[in-house]
Amino acid sequence: MKIRTVLSITLVFAIIFGLNGYIGWHGQVFLSNQLGSWFHPGLYWVVFWIVALSYLLAWAGSKVLPAGMKMILKIVGSYWFAMMQFGFLLLPLTDLVAGVLHLTSVPAATYTPILGLIDLGILILLMARGSYNARSPILRKYEITIPKKAGDWEQLRIAVASDIHLGSIVGNRHLRKLVKHVNGLKPDLILLPGDVIDDDIRPFIRYDMGTTMRELQAPLGIYAVLGNHEYIGGHIPAFIEQMDKIGIRVLMDETVHIQDRLYLVGRKDKAAERTAEGRKALASLLDGSDLGQPIIVMDHQPYHLDKAEAAGADVMLSGHTHRGQISPNYLITRRLFELDWGYLKKGNLHAIVSSGFGTWGPPVRLGSRSEIIELVIHFKSNERKEE
Known about the structure:
This protein is of the alpha/beta class. Helices cover 45% and strands 17% of the residues. Strands 1-12-2-3-4-5 form a 6-stranded mixed β-sheet. Strands 6-7-8-9-11-10 form a 6-stranded mixed β-sheet, with helices on one face.
């Protein structure tokens, strides 16, 4: 097992360094052509590798680097992730065109600057559009009917925001948009299905994001569950403490009976299965519950929809996938999950997976949007009314 882990890590680093070297070489060819004698390869490669490895440097130096330096490295590194993907998609096509031009005896000095400027223009357009998609959240509405009674409630309006990823990249400015849009919906209930923070709780505290988040309002309360990034950061007790301070209850394999009308189940993230405590099966969390009442489940990663349906859940809310965040990554998430984004009716279960409100890595989205979900649930009993 250890050998397999070492081999996997070695392969990942080989791919990262190989891809960055490939991108860096193209940058050298372009800049040396443009700058001529002003270009210094040694300086170029030093700067290039600092930029390319800045996210890794921020992580490795997290305990010794000043907070400001670590934040700068993380921001630069986050944007570089997008550069890596765009480079992986654009540069092979550029090489193909360059090869064809070379075979037709067009001088390299002629096509190199042209192809480089075209790639640069495409890159700027992609980054601009991707930043807009990430920073301009949309409201996505789902309206469903559950054939159960919820006391005297005829309907329930829920605001759902998954994968906010609050931290060094996603901060108070984006969070204020969440507060504005969610409160504008006037929801009865607010649910946050995981990855509220982006690994580290310290930026949340340092920039006083709790004060902004405290402005969220819903008469039936605000509930959250843990995502994989809360586990990655390892600051779960501190995270729960911060949420408690602002009136957000974090459910950790817990079931809440809201006004004796509806059950809300909050599961630990699937990452908990690798911990000593593990996580409970959904069926055990519903043990003793009245399955004749509506049941809503928050489970960050959208696995095992069939088990949720078999346990009696009516609604399952998830996130995690970001819908790949940057196209064409959705082709991967689509293969990993039965439902990687959107809505699916599976038996009696209404499954909804959000692409998320925030971003991981670069604040860039292509083929996906930053979104807030407005879920309107109508309750309708199957019982026939007496005439």
